């Protein structure tokens, strides 16, 4: 059964984007994030050995976290991540075919978009949530305008430049969640550093 992304976002609206994470550190970082309260974890496919990192996270965290990958471009990548235990697809762009392929495997689909045309096409393909990317290009006013025309129950998550300082403005504009990259994890960060960043972001909410 497909995980309920709304329920996961209700537990914690932050999505940890672990770009550049290594497989030998990913479990300790995953433990630190979940202990701090962050339960949606994305390993971008332009990280080292991303499928293996997804496999390790999924096996270690089980139902304590929604684990998946981002930066998908091809359907074969979806198959590999799903077989590794990944349950979440995130893309930087609007590709309805990838959404349909993810939904066929029972995954949560959170594709990227920038325009209303892209948003409605992705929703029609079965997207569970939409990622506004790059969010800093339009800022909270853009999200507020999009929220006015999209279905009210559509989870919208700004990604790109989201940090503790900008979170309140995004929340006021109608964000359902927040994709956090460098404000939560940068290559070389220790699990302790990641946990401290997670606590700061959660406090900003």
Automatic annotation (TrEMBL):
InterPro entries: Aldlse_KDPG_KHG, Aldolase_TIM, KDPG/KHG_AS_2
Sorted UniProt keywords: Carbohydrate metabolism, Lyase
Sample GO molecular function, one term: 2-dehydro-3-deoxy-6-phosphogalactonate aldolase activity
Family membership noted in the UniProt record: Belongs to the KHG/KDPG aldolase family.
EC number: 4.1.2.21
Listed Pfam families: Aldolase
Pathway(s) where this gene product acts: Carbohydrate acid metabolism
Protein name: 2-dehydro-3-deoxy-6-phosphogalactonate aldolase
Subunit structure: Homotrimer.
Entry's transmembrane regions: none
SUPFAM superfamilies linked to this entry: Aldolase
